[in-house]
Design brief:
A two-stranded antiparallel sheet has the order 1-2. It has one domain. The protein contains seven helices and two strands. It holds the Pfam family DUF1836. This is DUF1836 domain-containing protein. It comes from Ectobacillus ponti. InterPro entries: DUF1836.
Length: 179
């Protein structure tokens, strides 16, 4: 069990870009990258891995994953959307992310929703997810320890759960696109 607790600490599952981490002034691209690199540096698998690059941001903009920037500066709303994209890209395709975020982007640009409030709701759910994950991982690790090749079985179990959650998320996106 000590190994699982070490892995959970290394995963830094509680790390999120909190609303208070986002400055109330607009940022240039290099500042955006630095903010994300500093916030999520512990989430990297290797030291060479990049959390966010200029190319990524430009691709998100070209793909219309967020509304256009002004004067080469990114607003608090842009940073919230980039944070959501960062979280979503681990499981969803860029097309799925666009389908998911497009209706929200429209509502933001038309001042129909408060993006900070929506993101606050996401952060609450993410905190609940992190707590549930830690508990679930302990249970799965204990069950795997009773079997031969526990590391293989635990890894396969985690990948299976990941696939189930990803497929459920894809179904939600498909339903959103049908509306």
């Amino acid at each position: 069990m000590g190994e699982i607790e070490k892995i959970m600490r290394e995963l830094d599952v509680d790390s999120q870009l909190e609303l208070e981490d986002i400055p109330n002034l607009d940022l240039y691209m290099d500042q955006v990258i630095q903010l994300f690199e500093n916030k999520f540096k512990d989430a990297k698998r290797t030291g060479e891995e990049k959390i966010l690059t200029k190319t990524m941001i430009n691709n998100y903009a070209k793909g219309k994953l967020f509304f256009p920037i002004r004067n080469k500066k990114y607003t608090k709303e842009h940073l919230i959307l980039i944070s959501l994209i960062y979280q979503l890209k681990g499981a969803l395709s860029i097309n799925d992310i666009k389908a998911l975020l497009s209706p929200m982007n429209e509502k933001v640009t038309e001042n129909e929703i408060d993006l900070e409030e929506v993101y606050g709701g996401y952060l609450q759910l993410a905190a609940q997810n992190a707590a549930a994950f830690k508990e679930d991982l302990q249970v799965r690790a204990a069950a795997a320890e009773q079997q031969q090749l526990p590391e293989v079985l635990l890894t396969a179990s985690l990948v299976h759960m990941s696939n189930l959650y990803r497929r459920a998320a894809e179904k939600l996106v498909d339903r959103l696109e049908q509306k």
